[in-house]
Fold:
Amino acid sequence: MDAAARIEAELRSAVDRASGPGCPPQFAQALEYSVFPGGARVRPQLCLAVAGACGDPDPALSGAAAAALEMLHCASLVHDDLPAFDDADLRRGKPSVHAKYGEPLAILAGDALIVMAFETVARAGAAAPERLPALMSVLARAVGAPTGIAAGQAWESEASVDVEVYHRSKTGALFVGATMAGALAAGGDPGPWRRLGEKIGEAYQVADDLLDAAGDADTDKAVGRDAALGRPNCVAELGTLGAVERLKSLVKDAAASVPDCHGAEALRELVCAQAKRLVPKNLATVAA
Structure:
């Protein structure tokens, strides 16, 4: 089974467990809608790629870690779109969860996805209990406080914001979690993989800023929210061309940061291939 199929199978299993008998019907629908159909599943793909580079002797655990990362990412999108934050009615060209199911169910769906993520890893970790504490800790740090994605969202409520710290938490933390979790799930040393996650996280933040400033509202998320809400944005600081050049530089640094290991070259190719889809379609020729 290839990586994409593994990820979808793990997600399907987790959502089916959560939305089974006894689950409120509309809540079950909101959970399904929050996860399927998904985007590119970049974070779980990265997790599995790193696990593979480290040998991946326990595919059940690496698959669970990958699915957990995607559920945590989906939860962050559901919450990010809420009126209290971005107040976005569209996500990936369709109504956001709160626009379709209402705020209460959207909040609860995001909460449940976080719990489902940790349950999924806990279930798979029974076969490799010695790896479970470190793996759970890495995932928790990626989404919680003081420097996870929840903390990143919280910076938007502060009067004074260090933009680098804000971006490192809101976007970068989950990518660091993906690379380190992949190594841990495979029994590898997570330390050498941190820089790869950091650089990809930086690249995705620049890409997100480009999407906000120059994306297509019909196919991407709602555009213009950073300017409307007065949030830091790389395009506002560097201009469109400057932001594109910054993105290309970060992707190059990310590929170069892959440690020497089995499958390193394939992982570098994956990083570069994913980079091609980061830039909004109307800027693709500029980024070439």
Summary: The chain has one domain: 3-287.
